[in-house]
Design goal:
By secondary structure, the chain is an alpha+beta fold. The protein has a single domain, classed as FAS1 domain (Roll), CATH 2.30.180.10. The protein contains seven helices and seven strands. Strands 2-1-7-6-5-4-3 form a seven-stranded mixed β-sheet. Helix 2 runs antiparallel to helix 3 and helix 3 crosses helix 7.
Length: 160
Amino acid sequence: MKKLIIIATAFAAALALPINNASAAEAKTIVGVAAGAGQFNTLVIAVKAAGLVDTLNGAGPFTVFAPTDEAFAKLPAGTLDTLLKPENKEKLTAILTYHVLAGKVMAADVKTMAAKTVNGKEAAIKVDGGKVTIGAATVVKTDIAASNGVIHVIDTVLIP
């Protein structure tokens, strides 16, 4: 009986191993890193509401200009609540994908340019004396690595 319990325990552990590895890998994707950072709670809620979790957990690579919770708080009163409603999913998706570039762009590679975002519109990136802006947002932290790309922290939500 003891031998059967040991074998059953080993079998159960072997079955659980791929699930645990998948969870660890997912935790290191753009969404996982953002969720674990503590300053992107609103962004993660919005990504879930827009149905973009699977996309941003995908192979990528992606460059995400991630607004902080404070950036979302600067939106006019009621804006976020309105965007999170199911009937506004398309608009929310357009806003969020405006924060994403296809490919991995590290801070050292950023230059003044018009960058094509995943939503198809261009965002103006400006480098001036070590300060980087994208649209009306300032990049406040760079090169947060994820398994499928990189996150740059911004202080304002970009509206296409």
